[in-house]
UniProtKB/TrEMBL annotation:
This is Alpha-amylase. Gene3D superfamilies: Glycosidases, Golgi alpha-mannosidase II, Oligo-1,6-glucosidase, Domain 2. Its EC number is 3.2.1.1. The lineage of its organism: Bacteria, Pseudomonadati, Pseudomonadota, Gammaproteobacteria, Enterobacterales. Keywords: Carbohydrate metabolism, Glycosidase, Hydrolase. It comes from Citrobacter meridianamericanus. It is an enzyme of class 3 (hydrolase). Belongs to the glycosyl hydrolase 13 family. InterPro entries: Alpha_amylase, GH, GH13_cat_dom, Glyco_hydro_b, O16G_dom_2. Residues 19-426 form the Glycosyl hydrolase family 13 catalytic domain. It comes from the Bacteria. It catalyses: Endohydrolysis of (1->4)-alpha-D-glucosidic linkages in polysaccharides containing three or more (1->4)-alpha-linked D-glucose units.
Amino acid sequence: MPKMEKNRHAWWKEAVIYQVYPKSFYDSNNDGIGDIQGIIAKLPYLQELGITMIWVSPFYQSPMADNGYDIADYYAVNPDFGDMQDVENLIACAKEHGIQVMIDLVINHTSDEHPWFTQALAQPQSKYRDYYIFKPAINDAPPNNWRSIFGGSAWEKVAGEACYYLHTFHRKQPDLNWENPALREEIYAMITWWLEKGIAGFRVDAITFIKKDQDYGSLPADGIDGLVSIKWKSRNRPGIEVFLNELKERTFQRFGCVTVGEAPGVPLADYGQFIGPQGYFDMIFDFHAADIDVENGSEWFRRRDWTVKEFKQALFASQQAFIASGWGTTFIENHDQPRALSKLIRDPVFQNETGAKALAAMYFFMHGTPFIYQGQELGMKNFNRTRIEQFDDISSIDNYHRALTEGFTSAQALEFINQRSRDNSRTPFPWAKTINGGFNSGAQPWLEFTHRDFEINAEEQRHRSDSVFHFYQRLIQLRNLEYPEVLIYGNFSPLETHSDDIVAYARHTDNQRLISITNMSNTPLSYVIPVGEVLLNNYDSIDSNLKPYQTIIIKECVTNEQV
Ligand code: NOJ
């Protein structure tokens, strides 16, 4: 059924999407690794929270160099997670709980253990050679000076040959050659296969990297390693529109599925190409606000002393770009980000339930489909690791060494990765104050917990009405059940505030106006609270001043001039 995709109303605009990182969600067979059966077991919890769709990070066959974003077989499930029958059961059981399933689509690269790649190496004359990007060595050195996203040269030498293959990410993630039509056909067949299984859609990984500048030229170095970030030559480059249009037409469009592109590097002014009436995707993720604490959103040692004013500007600029072009996403966490509570609440005193609720009400009602990352609904925080050996994530290990190379001490390097490590959000989910936090029944988990006291846990929060969990539940009820016309489809207007530290906006229709006001600082700030019904408040009362990190959602008494 072709989708009425750019109609004002659409089912995927009404979704609230919860991201599951399967390795860390729930370990049903007690082997230390979360699994698909574990997700099925926790569907009642997700239904209770009120979400309507899950996005499951990769569960495909994989050597797990990048925790599943390195796929060795698109048609098979990693045995650590279960099997294809489990996935089919997940889709069916989720449906019974009113939940749809979105999966991750990783098509910029595969694992180096994918048979296409092993064939490409074993038989250079085979058709698989051209599924990847091989280039001759130049004077025994890599073809150019591009630095991979996970550090070091983006080129890996092929053993026994005077050539290299390209990997935008880890060396175990060789890039696919999208210039090759035969490769593209394989990808479209695979996507069709998954859509026929009944998944609701895809979160499309690293999709702005599929087109490389065909000159494969070097650029001036941007680090003391003599390399330059690959993104300048391989991210959102001219010509990508041909691939993205074809991808949409041959797959997504035929099924009316939902698509969310991970699209870093797209200028706001170009959002229309991605999410406009003829856009490649239904929505994209925008990282300007999420990456406010690091320069260019990349190397973690390039930290920024950001202000709330800048954060707000980034947030609202992205909102305006979404609105001008189509539909957006709103999120504060994912599996690549540290915990928002630790990143965005600068005063540690308020890295508590008050702060978690402030962030929740601040982002949730913006224009777009909201995403919640597992554990965010409990107000989880970052850990504080003391040794590099405690980290699993390849990007954390790379960033640690890059920081040392750039002249930082090991203590400084460790601090950078504690603040930014992707492991922060990948720790096992704390279900209860019991053995291993109820993640499993006692086996050593694949990654250390955030805190071993399990003070923050789902069981406790489900039974306490003023918990962060219940706050999120209420946000979802307000958006989806009580005020959908205004909170999903209504206009969005940033509100002027005397203080730069207040984030305030209105969602409004002809006859309703809801206001979200959040003090993003640790000091009381004056704000004239509009007269109306208070729908949510993370404090017990409202004074003449907004209290530190106070957030309020108000349904304003409207006059005709206001709307
Ligand atoms: C983006 C994913 O979110 C991240 O986890 C992964 O490492 C890279 N893409 C490479 O697939």
